[in-house]
Amino acid sequence: xxxxxxxxxxxxxxxxxxxxxxxxxxxxxxxxxxxxxxxxxxxxxxxxxxxxxxx
Length: 55
Hints:
The radius of gyration is 24 Å and the shape is rod-shaped. The protein contains one helix and no strands. With about 55 residues, the chain is an all-alpha fold. The longest helix has about 55 residues.
């Protein structure tokens, strides 16, 4: 009986984190996208300043 209960509990616990981890992955992906976009903007601005300064 304990084995059946632990398997049922483990089965429930396996299902819940999967759906949460999908949401977490989506949130993490959005966060990384924002960070990379900010870094790209910063680099582009610096390169533009450097390019305009040489003329």
